[in-house]
């Protein structure tokens, strides 16, 4: 469902200084697969997930979604494609403090032109799935770290995307809450959703059917659960 | 060195809605102690650390630093006391994106009125301690999550505070980098620094000589390493 073909990503910091975040990565994610991406801090996991999630473009190489070459799409077309097919949980949530929790979760539904009441209903449903219904009128900065993380996950699933990409989705959670969120991912995967999770945590990685290891911007190893 | 006496913290969300983050917490931290605070997501750990770190005032109860009652201090005096005695690592770092990494780390030294060259030298020294010297001219948003976390730790130790308080300091780090940071905390503790760490991670908690468990805004259990 997503094919990454020989992708590099270079950040130019000044005339003479560059950071190579990805140095030639190829990876194919099948529909309905549950994939984990692991690797040391600073080695390119978030960058790879942002490129697979169509949030950033590669410096070279291609990204195909359902076989279609995304390099040919305009920024607007890319945003549309992403808005329909992908749900993204950022490493630091990216919630908007001037909106309520419910309004944050409704955001992915806005381009769909549905009535406000329907949007609110679907957003509430997503919030229930992460057990956050009590917070619907709060602002994100009135929540704890782990509570914000769960709101970010609700926002990533509200529009029922085929693919869910999550960057360290349980980093701020205690083990009981983490187990509940992993249960939610397992349920979504059983419903046929494709799940890609970046994690430092082996116990989360072992939920996946395949683990890819990144080092210095390259895939260095792969492990499949039998 | 820090005494928390029957502290509560209530957040008033509207006329009729309140959240009790802390419901009567008493805790004494001895000088040079290494204390861990654990507990489920949303149960008051960050709130307790912010109150102990003099970043927020309790709704009731007292906080004593070296025996002095902080409720009698003005906001300015509280900020001075905090700036001298405490180094704080926030759960989401609180780095300033419009300044370089080095300028971020220099911040706690500004009130000291030392020459710029001395500030830069001490900031570079702190950055070396977290192995981030290559990033000194970067902006925080040009770093990975775990790299930002290490910069936040460098900023918390640059002014050589007696007490270091860290909220989930290794949540974004892989196990090797996490072990390096825990080694740094151990070294600081051996030098006589008082360390208070909030964590969800048992292996980090077991670095400490005492673990305090928080549930629903109260201390429910305590464990001492023999
Ligand atoms: N916007 C940016 N500008 C410049 N360099 C960047 C930018 N974003 C990331 N980098 C660099 O690219 C490299 C990879 O970063 P990335 O965020 O992908 O790592 P990561 O594996 O997610 O790390 P972590 O586990 O700490 O979150 C890092 O060295 C980082 O400093
Ligand atoms: N500024 C605020 N305004 C209103 N409520 C708040 C505010 N900050 C925290 N809270 C509430 O107080 C409670 C405790 O929050 P706190 O951040 O201390 O939890 P925590 O134990 O650190 O959680 P986590 O492990 O998820 O970081 C939560 O229910 C949260 O919603
Ligand atoms: Mg990352
Ligand atoms: Mg917290």
Structure, described:
2 copies of one chain form a homodimer. By secondary structure, chain A is α/β, with parallel strands linked by helices. In chain A, 32% of the residues lie in helices and 28% in strands. Chain A has helices spanning 45-52, 75-85, 101-106, 116-129, 145-157, 175-190, 202-205; strands at 2-12, 18-29, 34-38, 60-65, 68-69, 86-89, 163-167, 194-198, 210-215, 218-224. In chain A, helix 4 (116-129) packs across helix 5 (145-157). The radius of gyration of chain A is 17 Å and the shape is globular. At the A-B interface, helix 5 and helix 6 of A face helix 5 and helix 6 of B. The complex binds adenosine-5'-triphosphate (2 copies) and magnesium ion (2 copies). One adenosine-5'-triphosphate (ATP) sits between chains A (11, 13, 19, 21, 39, 41-47, 91) and B (142-147, 172). One magnesium ion is lined by residues 45-46, 91, 167 of chain B.
Q: Strands, helices and their partners?
A:
2 copies of one chain form a homodimer.
Chain A lengths: L1 E11 L5 E12 L4 E5 L6 H8 L7 E6 L2 E2 L5 H11 E4 L11 H6 L9 H14 L15 H13 L5 E5 L7 H16 L3 E5 L3 H4 L4 E6 L2 E7 L2
Features:
binds adenosine-5'-triphosphate; 226 residues; alpha/beta; binds magnesium ion; globular; six-stranded mixed sheet; 28% strand; homodimer
Adjacency order of strands in the biggest sheet of chain A: 6-7-8-3-9-10
* Average of the residue pLDDT scores of chain A: 95
The quaternary structure here is homodimer
Largest sheet of chain A: 6 strands, mixed
Radius of gyration of chain A: 17 Å
* Most extensive chain-chain interface: A-B, 29 and 30 residues
Task: Give the terminus-to-terminus CA distance of chain A.
Answer: 22 Å
- Which outline of chain A best applies? globular
Ligand inventory: adenosine-5'-triphosphate, magnesium ion
Low-confidence stretches of chain A: none
Number of helices of chain A: 7
Summing up helix and strand content along with how strands pair, one would put the structural category of chain A as alpha/beta
Helix fraction of chain A, binned, reads 25-40%
């Amino acid at each position: 469902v997503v094919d990454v073909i020989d992708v590099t990503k270079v950040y130019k910091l000044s005339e003479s200084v560059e950071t190579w975040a990805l140095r030639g990565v190829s990876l194919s994610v099948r529909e309905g697969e549950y994939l984990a991406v692991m690797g040391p801090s600073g080695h390119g996991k978030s960058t790879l997930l942002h490129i697979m999630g169509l949030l950033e473009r590669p410096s070279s190489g291609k990204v195909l979604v359902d076989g279609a070459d995304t390099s040919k799409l305009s920024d607007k077309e890319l945003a549309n494609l992403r808005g329909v097919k992908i749900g993204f949980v950022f490493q630091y949530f990216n919630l908007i403090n001037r909106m309520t929790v419910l309004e944050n979760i409704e955001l992915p539904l806005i381009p769909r032109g549905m009535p406000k009441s329907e949007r609110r209903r679907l957003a509430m449903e997503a919030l229930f799935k992460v057990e956050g219904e009590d917070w619907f009128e709060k602002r994100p900065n009135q929540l704890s770290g782990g509570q914000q993380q769960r709101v970010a996950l609700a926002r990533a699933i509200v529009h029922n995307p085929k693919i869910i990409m999550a960057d360290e989705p349980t980093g701020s959670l205690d083990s009981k809450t983490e187990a509940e969120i992993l249960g939610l991912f397992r349920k979504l995967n059983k419903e046929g959703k494709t799940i890609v999770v970046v994690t430092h945590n082996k116990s989360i990685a072992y939920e996946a059917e395949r683990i890819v290891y990144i080092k210095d911007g390259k895939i260095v190893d792969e492990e499949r659960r039998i």
